[in-house]
Amino acid sequence: MNHIETVSPARERIMREDDFLVSKTDLKGRITYGNRIFIEYSGYSEEELLGKQHNIVRHPDMPRGVFKFLWDTLESRKECFAYVKNRSKDGGFYWVFANVTPSFNAQGQVEGYFSVRRKPRASGIAVVSGIYQQMLEEERRAGPKDACAASLALLTHALAQQGVSYENFILSI
Question: What's the pLDDT score for residue 8?
Answer without folding.
Answer: 45
